[in-house]
Amino acid sequence: MFKGFYTVATGMVAQQRKTEILTNNMANANTPGFKSDQTTIRSFPDMLMSAVNSTNIPTENGFAIKNLNPVGAVNAGVYLQETMPNQVQGQIYSTGLNTDIALINSSMPTDEASGNSGQIFFRLENESGTESYTRNGNFTLDGQGNLVNPQGLFVLDANGERMQFDNDNIRISSDGAIFDENDVQVGTLGVAFSENPDVLVKRDNGLFNTLDGVDLPSAYGQANVQFSMQQQYLEGSNVDASKAMTDLLTAYRAFEANQKVLQAYDKSMEKAVNEIGRVN
Q1: Which structural domain range is residue 269 located in?
Q2: Are residues 202 and 122 in the same domain?
Q3: How would you class 214 by CB atoms within 10 Å of its CB: exposed for 0-12, middle for 13-18, buried for 19 or more?
Q4: Mean pLDDT of 66-72
Q5: Which residues form the Flagellar basal body rod protein N-terminal domain (predicted)?
């Protein structure tokens, strides 16, 4: 009986966590470059239940041998194993702003170990001085003319240096070259490449970090990595709002079903305590 409480409780916790993740996805359906989170729910390993019996041997000392009769397998519930961002590229849309840039995947190699396709990111300098990565190209110029992201992190060039401009009258070609108002090339926009983006740590505001803190290699010159950029455009969120809503309702129903089972267990325990154990 008590084991049923634990099994139902784990199901409720897993569905609650899944609901939170789906809600966050829907809240970011219009966030540029946002990658929706995917969840994986797994069951705990099954436990083999056995009955312990004793077989008496007709001897003077009355020896008894214990034997096990298998009853069957029983599970201890489920848990939310992991969440992974869906790296599928979102739709590209026009903004008309010179400092908005969209990264467009043309061809990405597949990692042999994981079977996942590689991914490219804009390079940013975070608060600790190391690099973070994003697909959100919604950039702007700060008060000193530095190209920054919406959180104020510096956008880096291909050499890992900050970029500073007198004004936003710049032109960015499809290969990432940056030209000033006199059509003189003043740099190249930094782009990093990850062979297996699933191992990156997802942070708030659409940022990614490496697990070991080592910067990702440049995407320029990487074998089989082909991409382009489009100025005055942004990559939209890859959240499928209709699917997210359907999954959210399914998670709610699963939570409610577990809740009903929990209430049934509670009533059974109440009956056992108050009626079966009553002494007249």
Answers
A1: 2-83+240-276
A2: yes
A3: exposed
A4: 68
A5: 5-35
User: Cα angle at 23 between 257 and 114, to 5 degrees?
Assistant: 95
Question: How many independent structural domains does the chain possess?
Answer: 2
Output DSSP code: residue 189: B
Please tell me whether residues 244 and 196 are part of one structural domain. Answer: no
Q: Show the tokens assigned to 41.
A: 């729910």
Residues 226 and 244 in one domain: no
The CA-CA-CA angle for residues 120, 122, 126, to 5°, reads 130
Inter-residue contact 148 to 155 (CB < 8 Å): yes
- Residue 223 and residue 258 in one domain: no
What pLDDT digit, counting tens, does each position of 167-224 carry?
A: 999 999 999 999 998 999 999 999 999 999 988 999 988 999 998 889 999 999 998 8
Claim to verify: residue 46 and residue 100 sit in the same structural domain = no
The answer to whether residues 10 and 76 belong to one domain is: yes
Determine contact, residues 47/74, Cβ cutoff 8 Å: yes
Q: What is the pTM of this model?
A: 0.79
State which amino acid sits at residue 124.
L
Contact status, residue 211 vs residue 200, Cβ threshold 8 Å: yes
